[in-house]
Amino acid sequence: MYCGMENFGNPSDHSVHVPVLFDEVLEAFRPLFGEPAVICDATFGGGGHTCGLLDMLPEAKVVGLDQDPDAASRAHSVKSRYHERFEFVSTNFEHIAEVDTLKEGADGVLFDLGVSSFQFDEGARGFSFRDDAPLDMRMDTRVGRSAAEFLETADEAELVEAIRDFGEERQWRKVVLAIQQARGSERLQRTRSFAELIEACIGTPPRYRKGQRVNKIHPATLTFQGVRIAVNREISVMERAIPDAFEILKSGGVLAVISFHSLEDRFIKRVFRRFAGRPEHRNDSRLQGDRPVRAEMINTKAIQPSKEEIQSNPRSRSARLRILRRL
Predict the structure, then answer these.
(1) What is the spatial distance between Cα 279 and Cα 218, in angstroms, rounded to a whole number?
(2) How far is CA 20 from CA 24, 102, 254, in A?
(3) Residue 185 — φ and ψ, nearest 5°?
(4) What is the distance, to the nearest Å, from the Cα of residue 126 to the centroid of all Cα atoms in its chain?
(5) How far apart, in whole angstroms, are the C-alpha atoms of residue 179 and residue 232?
């Protein structure tokens, strides 16, 4: 069993961290076996994927990146086991091209986008309305506006982008208006009061009943998602980091990206097709000579978790893995 899985507890316990698409990720990097490869785990989290890669590839070194201040303490145990084969850098992966060890190139890069289970399950971080806590949502609590500050100060265009575009909430007009009207009332300061505000605003879906697992989607879920994405600049950071990661890949290097949101997966699909010299979308009518082929797509369709993985880890149900190899 890989180190990354040793301390995660029972996979059926949703409060523990389970690396998503664990076996599929390892398979993507298996061709590097026996080589002194340098791999970047751009979203270290709890180190599950990192340890799996280090165990599978005994000659490899993994550079783990994470902007979460708490990730540094989790990295200590990995460092104590793998020593010089592991390096941790406390930084946002948008700075991947600036990491000294990676400036000479990487043989592989992995992104596991979105919020980690560690962040989500720590109530005080404010990512979930399961616990009543200050509405923060920052992956790096040292910089930027908290979610509460964002909701109190964002202009209407920013709110619309967060709720309608990032959250994909159909009743976004009602939500935006409710947020604007709640400013200064303390209702935007804590997770529970904000969730109650959204629920009162858009109502409870017919299939959702409190205390029942008829429909797991709480009426505030999409809004929380959209605000989180906005607060952490997740889309713009990803749009910068993915192309930068490709550029630092050596010939034959592997780029693997796990996404959980349609906006993320849509961008990754298009940029992967661009690097592979394929039409980026249905209206891309450029001639083949105008589309340089710099990579090959290992999987033309996104890899999704198995039914067994979804059953043991419901949070994996929206995960999509795409893999690219640089030529």
Answers:
(1) 38
(2) 9, 25, 18
(3) -105, 0
(4) 17
(5) 19
